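FORM 7B: Structural annotation worksheet

SECTION A. Query
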Amino acid sequence: MPVIVIANPKGGVGKTTLATNLAGYFASQGHGALLGDIDRQQSSRAWLSIRPEQARPIATWDINEDYVAKPPKGTTHVVLDTPAGLHGWRLNDALKMADKILVPLQPSIFDILATQDFLRRLADEKAVRAGEIDVGIVGMRVDARTRSAEQLQRFIEGLKLPVLGYLRDTQNYVQLAAHGLTLWDVAPSRVQRDLDQWQPVLDWVGQTKGGPKADSKGD
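SECTION B. Predicted structure
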């Protein structure tokens, strides 16, 4: 059961947008998707509470500072949303659970400076260096053709962590989130540009240590 942790100690970088849409993708593939939330704001849980009954189901996870319940029976894919300021034992616990860590990062110098120590910490983690945990970065609210994207790429190169892709700044995410929906809950023609941007991220998420994982139900 893969566990994908969405993490960045900087607030407002798009963690919940990344987490909810990734869970929505897993659900769209027929997987038993679960969305956990250890952020005190409980944004992901609040989003799940407005998700329409007719939408593909995404389970929630009883997880807090003192107690982590077992994932519901039938869960096959877990996405864990984490809070701003993630560090210390909370970060260690998240690392223990993680198979992969996705770090959303906006390309402004302020976001980069606020995140650089965290990325260095991840790169130096024994499990990451040993290949037991994969770490990937997703540029959020950025056009890949801009100087901002180049700046982000230059910064990341020194850490030897991959930039998986760039997700543009669009109202599609805002409008869908307001209804408890994701890119995979609407007609592809409405959001095709965004689906295309997600593909490299999904390819990376679907990879296992033995190579790419077949995208079929039950994997």
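SECTION C. Observations
The CA atoms of residues 2 and 208 lie 9 Å apart. Helices lie at 15-28, 43-49, 88-97, 109-124, 126-129, 147-157, 171-177, 188-205.

SECTION D. Sign-off
Analyst initials: ____
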